[in-house]
């Protein structure tokens, strides 16, 4: 059943869902490994979370097209969380608790939480994570040791001497492939749409290193700089390689801070992702947010119990799912099955992947989260958006994720109060013979705090109506509210609602590609 109540025949769409699931698997495999690498967790943990996201969460979610798994947005939290909890098993207890908190959020119908976070703060959070990813991965990209940065600043010659030439060469070629694969000239070819660049880069990196071993031994990357996954002969042996949460860690007060941070950030990233995927859905299906929080909560509890990383719904995987022609959640399930089969039967092959190639994949992920066009867009919007955005980035870089988000929210609230918050709109309904006419006249100052009220009002407008949104009397309308109004206008035709905007400037909605 879907969120609208209609029954879905999953076998009828299997012809499209199976190849889509295969494509998403090819996208997810290097990302699962790479995100685990960036998180300082066992690489196997990334695969576990990908499997749980496909095999468990896909069926619990109300979304037909979103795909869940380990997310780049959680790498900093996981890295800091493992360090705070001192052992990975203790951190897993925090993941289990975070899942329970998400279930609680779903039960109290807190899916509206995403509407109360300014987009400037959320974009700042993702941009900061992108910068941290880039900073973290440069040493692995160059095949250097963990003390690369400290050595470089104290002794440049010694720092550069720790760079492995072969690993750097493999990383550079991998990065070049990823950049080339993203260009319009390559994207026009059908193969570029069906085969992800990350997969090509990883496969070529294996071939290059095997060439180095055979012909240029000095350049060959050693086992310390290769993927290390446990080799599992059968499902029966799976239990021997899984990690389990340390229940004694619940006595540690820091566990609750880590769990709360995971629950809030994972929930926000999930809600943003499913909203983005819903916009791409050709059938315009809507994902129920509260059910999604419940599904993610069960997924995180399951992943935590089995030794996996925390998860979210992920835009990259979901976008790949949509563009490859998926019709139902069967595609996400198939991707999870493929991930499971890969660790059962391909571990020896996966252990040939150089870490510098995965670092190249993560450098591209980091760049896309913090690309220069994002900064230019925030500057163009105005200081009310740019200042909270840049302060959130700086606060996260110099403190941690949770503190940085809180600082960004405080700054955002300051600008909201400065805008002199008043009643957001006047609502007037008129009866006409053809269709009901509803006039929404916005007030003089419409701030971000009004966003939730306006969005909920727009969501509950009757079908087959004529809606006039008038900003004639408005001196200030917050960017987030303008964005919400534009999104409503884009999708209103699904309910046969005719929308007329008066004195409302158009804004560009967020590009998820």
Briefly summarize what is shown.
It is built from 23 helices and eight strands.
Structure description:
The protein is of the alpha/beta class and 513 residues long. It has 3 domains: 14-158 and 234-347, no CATH class; 373-418, no CATH class; 425-502, Transcription Regulator spoIIAA. It is built from 23 helices and 8 strands. It has helices spanning 14-39, 43-60, 75-85, 88-107, 119-141, 148-154, 156-161, 165-181, 184-187, 190-194, 197-215, 238-241, 254-280, 289-306, 315-323, 330-345, 347-350, 355-369, 372-381, 383-398, 401-418, 451-459, 479-491, and strands at residues 68-69, 312-313, 425-430, 436-442, 445-446, 465-470, 476-477, 498-502. It has a 4-stranded mixed β-sheet, with no helix packed on it. It has a two-stranded antiparallel sheet with strand order 1-2. A hairpin with a 5-residue loop joins strand 3 (425-430) and strand 4. Helix 1 runs antiparallel to helix 2. It is globular. Mean pLDDT is 87; it is low at 1-5. Its main location: membrane. The chain crosses the membrane at residues 20-38, 43-61, 90-108, 115-136, 156-179, 191-208, 255-277, 298-320, 332-365, 386-417. Residues 15-389 form the SLC26A/SulP transporter domain. Keywords: Membrane, Transmembrane, Transmembrane helix.
- Biggest sheet overview: 4 strands, mixed
Q: How many helices in DSSP terms? A: 23
Query: What's the total number of strands?
Result: 8
Helix/sheet category: alpha/beta
Oligomer: single chain
Domains counted in the coordinates: how many? 3
Task: Assign a percent range to the helix content.
Answer: 55-70%
Subcellular location: Membrane
Domain SLC26A/SulP transporter: 15-389
Membrane topology: Multi-pass membrane protein
Transmembrane segments: 20-38, 43-61, 90-108, 115-136, 156-179, 191-208, 255-277, 298-320, 332-365, 386-417
